[in-house]
Amino acid sequence: MQSASLVDSLNSLFPPFTSSLPSSLRLQPRFLRILNPPSSFSPAYPLHTDRSTPASLRSPAAGDSVQIPEMAVKDGQDPRIAKISSAIRVIPNFPKPGIMFQDITTLLLDTKAFKDTIDLFVERYRDKNISVVAGVEARGFIFGPPIALAIGAKFVPMRKPNKLPGEVISEEYSLEYGTDKMEMHVGAVEPGERALVIDDLIATGGTLCAAIKLLERVGVEVFECACVIELPELKGRERLGEKPLFVLVSSA
Ligand SMILES: O=P(O)(O)OC[C@H]1O[C@H](OP(=O)(O)OP(=O)(O)O)[C@H](O)[C@@H]1O
Ligand SMILES: Nc1ncnc2[nH]cnc12
């Protein structure tokens, strides 16, 4: 009963969408029984047929998310970077009190800003003889693969423990809010290869240091680390020492 009424509501809410589909693909009660959320379900992001970023994701509601006005733009000459910076949402007190969480999911909703992000990295790293793009779980898996494909490198996932099925080497590391371990498949890279390490964000630098150590342990040269965001007050860049770090936006 609940399914049928929900179908009616959805079909009337989104007529341009549902009416353009063949009848076999229109929302049917049969599908909705599987997909039906519990009655308390409230989507984190509003259902939206418009492909542009919903206004509610750009302008935070009632003080529970904010754009950081002091977000500084690196390499300020490039107008794409300001748009990338403003597409990143900041959620105070997530996942713990005191953490200003930099939420890149809103950047992913902005097709121009997301593409510009990838393009800026590709422009920097193409023709640098990089054969490996190593992406750190989880958010390095979003930015790493398109960069790897565009520069003709392989993508190597640096994973949380017990996720990779083959033989692994591992490194423990500390985070802004906890500790963790990183693993890489043995044989994914060869000694003498040249790697770029990609993540969405550098805070204390512990994550990137663990990735660098894993790669260098097997004889790979880490050419540079690259992130979308840097939190400079956590001094991750210092922790990386001599290893070059390229970022697009900084909270300083
Ligand atoms: O510079 P650091 O202090 O090491 O912190 C940066 C790391 O923290 C976040 O990942 P997180 O560990 O929260 O994992 P997730 O992406 O799986 O949520 C972020 O995506 C970086 O990987
Ligand atoms: N403030 C932050 N926002 C998003 N990811 C993080 N990882 C570590 N600190 C973070």
Summarize the structure.
Its EC number is 2.4.2.7. By secondary structure, the protein is α/β, with parallel strands linked by helices.
Your description of this structure?
The chain is of the alpha/beta class and 252 residues long. The chain has one domain (2-251): 3-Layer(aba) Sandwich (Rossmann fold). The chain has ten helices and ten strands. It has helices at 2-13, 15-19, 29-35, 55-58, 79-86, 105-109, 111-125, 140-151, 206-217, 236-239; strands spanning 72-73, 89-92, 100-103, 132-136, 154-158, 168-175, 178-185, 194-202, 221-230, 245-250. Strands 1-10-9-8-4-5 form a six-stranded mixed beta sheet, with helices on both faces. Helix 1 (2-13) packs across helix 3, helix 5 (79-86) crosses helix 7 and helix 7 packs across helix 8 (140-151). The longest helix has 15 residues, at 111-125. It is globular, with a radius of gyration of 21 Å. It starts with a helix and ends with a strand.
Class in CATH? Answer: Alpha Beta
Please, how many domains?
1
Span of the ends, CA to CA: 54 Å
What would the average pLDDT be, to the nearest integer?
A: 78
Please give the count of helices.
Answer: 10
Number of strands: 10
Q: Roughly how much helix do the residues carry, as a percent range?
A: 25-40%
Bound molecules: 1-O-pyrophosphono-5-O-phosphono-alpha-D-ribofuranose, adenine
Looking at how many chains there are and whether they match, the oligomeric state comes to single chain
At the third CATH level, what is the topology name? Answer: Rossmann fold
Secondary-structure element order, N to C = HHHHEHEEHHEHEEEEHEHE
Spatial sequence of strands, sheet with the most strands: 1-10-9-8-4-5
Which CATH architecture would you pick?
Answer: 3-Layer(aba) Sandwich
Query: Low-confidence runs (pLDDT<50, min 5 residues)?
Result: 1-75
